[in-house]
Amino acid sequence: MTDALDWLAPLVSLDRLAWLDPLAWLVVLPLGWATLAFVLGSGRGAWAALAGVSLQLWLAVELAGTILADGATPPVGASEMAAHHAVGGWGAPLGIDLAADGLSAAMLILTQMVALPLAVYARAYFKAGDPAGAWFWPLMGFLIAGLNALFVSADLFNLYVTLELVGLASVGIVAAGGGAQQLAAALRYLFVSLVGSGAYLLGVALIYGAYGTVSIATLTPLIAAEAPRLVWLAAGLMLVGLLLKTALFPFHFWLPPAHGSAPAPVSALLSALVVKASFYLILRLWIGPLEPLLPAAAAWLAALLGALAIFWGSYRAIRAVKLKRLIAYSTVAQLGYLFLIFPLLAQPAALQAGVMQVFAHGLAKAGMFAAAGVMIRATGQDTVAGLAGAVDRLPVTLFAFGLAGMTLMGLPPSSGFLAKWQIIEAALAQGYWIIAVVALAGGLLAALYVFRVLRQAFLVSGADVAERGPVPAVPRTLEWSAFVLAAASVLLGLRGVELMRLLGAGA
Amino acid sequence: MKALAKTFVVVWLALVFVAAAIGAMLELGPAALDLRAPVTDHLTDTGVSHPVTAVLLNYRGYDTLLEIAVLLLALLGILAAGGAAGSAAPKAAHPMLQASARLAAPLMILVAVYLLWAGAFLPGGAFQAGAVLAAAAVLLHLVGLTRGWDSPRLRLRLGLAGGFALFLAVAAALLTQGALLGFPPAWAGELIMLIEAGLTVSLGLILAGFFLFLSRDLR
Amino acid sequence: MTSGLLFALVGVALFALGVAGVVLIAQLPRRILAFNLMGSGAFLVLVGLAQRGDLPDPVPHAMVLTGIVVAVAATALALALVRRLHALTGRLQLPEDDGD
Amino acid sequence: MTLGLAFDLLLACALLWSAWRTLSTPRLDRAIILFIAFGLLMTIAWIRLSAPDIALAEAAIGAGLTGALLLDAYGALRQRKRRRKAS
User: Which residues of D touch chain B, with CB atoms under 8 Å apart?
Assistant: First the structure.
């Protein structure tokens, strides 16, 4: 009997499935279903997307499992990575290598984890014939493919191509079926994105000129051994280009219009994942090949800009009239936290804190934008004021918004609490109390803009609601997928240990 | 006033950057690595004899795969940005022009086929061939012989995505055999030619689409 | 000085000119031109600097081919958005964003 | 100074000049023509850098296709403006 079932074994265990290398399939799969969705035609392909993202989630978890199981894993940031795939069989520096460590695996899991509920949400959000949803599925497929490709690439030039893939896909879904305001936001975003990747490309060109290779693993020891002045310039160009794409203060000007004017599922994808991709790349370069070049002052400059982002983004969110603008400015503020960790990177806990914040904000912000989409549908307007009395009609959605808000404020037991607590702990351990103060103040400011929304919905009477006529019904799927994302952001706080282990693997 | 200050700052930064970069470039020593030798050493295993084509489709074929995705994506973005439906009825050009376009189009297709074939051992290849095909399609449109494209029907969608799908399918099939795009030396030449032929048609359609889908808003 | 190094220097200047153009010019089609100049500059640096010893290197050649195609894709998308914006508003400049 | 280097210097100046004029000339149609000229100069530069593949691609895609796209867009914009004025 057991013999008869032996053929099943390779389907279950990845170790015996050499051909099922998750690194490469995580890129091939989304490219495949994106193409299929395009061929199927306008408005089609939701099922292909759902099936594809589910499979990808499984692959990403498997990948994380193999990295965790490998006891001798080198620490995150080492040029030797745990999982590895030589495209074309050539190997770097002649060919392109794919590689993943705990950091890449974490980003891959987050991407599929956010994309799956959002795909469910988007299927209900874009009604048949909606011009904004006409080509949503292939665009989303290429976006996810670009993100996955970025997280597994170990080649600087290949990373440029993935950056362009992510950038153009994002601009495409922001512009989709939009009016003048949306198009203007998309164009502004496009130019920023192109200048950012252009600066990155020039940096790569200078590095190739100096060393004759663009493979990260080959470059790391070369840069550590000798760095001519040109390489400093290259590092500066690459980092500034990526900061522009990450929308770190003062480069944030393009983000609120782009994230605030797109349809809700698009805003969620952009805020939760796309800005994190360029942040991931900054982190990857910072702890990897560029590490020997960066003085402590650079880390403090990043942290200073991060702190300014927290204050300015929160201030604008507190004053915002429109609901989605409020959430978009909150993204500007929350991105600031990610840069507070740079002066602390001497401790591995700082990296864990940063990635925890990426997860916390990714899940919470996706949930928040999804919830906002429901509220805008139900109230017919994108304003905070219009939410008066919404609690009677949208209890689930407001609960979701509240949970996501909890994560952004950093209240226990959410993952946001875990992230902020770790930042504060790492800061105090190294004697940098100022960073701890900034992190605490940011939480209080977040409370102000989150409660502004909740107060309007719960406490202000919705007496004028009746005058607006019948309330449009909102599909239940929308409410619940928003809830799942927000709840995940809180529950992750209880299961944070696995994530920490993934990032601490071998350290 | 603010605009003037911005101009001043940007120009000043640009000048400082150029001066620094030029200074740093002039003092640069030789590179640590030289990929010219390995590229030539393995050339017989790549299936093509032209080094640039070997890098483009074999050594770094993965870049090219993603790059075709970028092209398809730009077209998708153009379609998604929308515009009024209904294809433009082009003005018919002078009969003489039309006749010469009719004559030129097949010639251009021949040139494209030559460029594609020559790419294996001479400068040329799918991109250059695709651009020539696109030019032929645009020419026919400009003299009023073909209509602009409205929304892509199934056949056109298959043509637009087919080259990329074929490339991806070959990459995935090779992945099940070991490595993504790991061409076996014995078959590399044939597989690369197959991919390039598919890409030429799709690239021609995509590049032509950049014009013909846009002619929608030209009424 | 070799041709490679000379064109790499020109590339840096073109890149700076292009970036300054994208940042400073308001007219959208002109910004697209500036972006293309910026890209050409980066390509010249990539190829020129790699062959400052005057021996051609096929790896950056292939990279630049990739880059040119990506640039034309971005240009086509940008032009499509500009044309659409012009159809809707009759303007060739981005409207001021009030920030709210 | 060799003849080749002198030619390169001339070409470099022409590249920079045409790029500058592309951005500074007041009329958009002129700018597009100058940009196409810039693309053709780039083609020559690629030949000088012994990169015939890129030269072909630059002529077909960089100067040719991009230039045609720009001219096409310019024509469409002008046509719409004229119609807007007429109505």
Answer: 52-53, 55-57, 60-61, 64-65, 68-69, 72-73, 76, 79-80
Do the Cβ atoms of C97 and A188 come within 8 Å?
Answer: yes
C35 domain residue, yes or no: yes
Best residue in C64, C69, C70 to probe D by mutation, most D CBs within 10 Å?
Answer: C64
Structural domain count, chain C? 1
Contacts (Cβ under 8 Å, ≥6 apart) of B109: B133, B136
Does a structural domain hold residue B1?
no
Asked if residue C50 belongs to a domain, the reply is: yes
Cα–Cα distance measured from residue A363 to residue C74, given in angstroms and rounded to the nearest whole number: 30
Q: Read off the tokens for C3.
A: 């041709």
Interface test with A, best of B13, B62, B78, B202 (most A CBs within 10 A): B62
Alpha-carbon gap, residue C34 to A347, rounded angstroms: 43
Contact (CB<8Å) B180/A88: yes
Of B32, B82, B154, the CB nearest to A211: B32
Q: Map out the domains of chain A as residue ranges.
A: 297-507
Asked if residue A167 lies in contact with residue C65, where contact means CB atoms within 8 angstroms, the answer is no
User: How is residue C53 written in tokens?
Assistant: 């010893």
Give pLDDT tens digits for B165-216.
999 999 999 999 889 999 999 999 999 999 999 999 999 999 999 988 876 5
Q: Cβ separation of C36 and D51 shorter than 8 Å?
A: no
Number of domains in chain D: 1
Supply the pTM of this predicted model.
0.95
Which domain, by its residues, includes C41?
Answer: 3-89
Here the ipTM equals 0.95
Residue of D65, D69, D70 to mutate, interface with B, max B Cβ within 10 Å: D65
For chain B, the C-alpha Rg in angstroms (whole number) is 22
- Whether B117 is covered by a domain: the verdict is yes
Q: What CATH number corresponds to the domain at position C9? A: 1.10.287.3510
CB contact under 8 A, A212 and B34: yes
Give the closest-approach CA distance of B98 to chain A in angstroms. 33
Contact indicator for A64, A112 with CB cutoff of 8 Å:
no
> Do chain A and D touch: 3 or more Cβ pairs under 8 angstroms?
no
Total of domains in chain B: 1
List, in order, residues 6 or more apart from A269 with CB less than 8 Å away: A114, A115, A118, A140, A143, A173, A366
Chains that touch B (3 or more CB pairs under 8 A): A, C, D
Q: Which of B31, B42, B66 sits opposite A161 (nearest CB)?
A: B66
- pLDDT of B117 over the 60 cut: yes
CA distance A211 to A231: 9
DSSP-assigned states of every residue in A31-52: HHHHHHHHHH-TT--HHHHHHH
From chain A residues 209-228, the ones with a CB under 8 A of any chain B CB are 209-213, 218, 222, 228
pLDDT digits (tens, 9 = 90+) for B128-146: 899 989 988 888 887 877 7
Match 């307007």 to its residue by tokens. A381
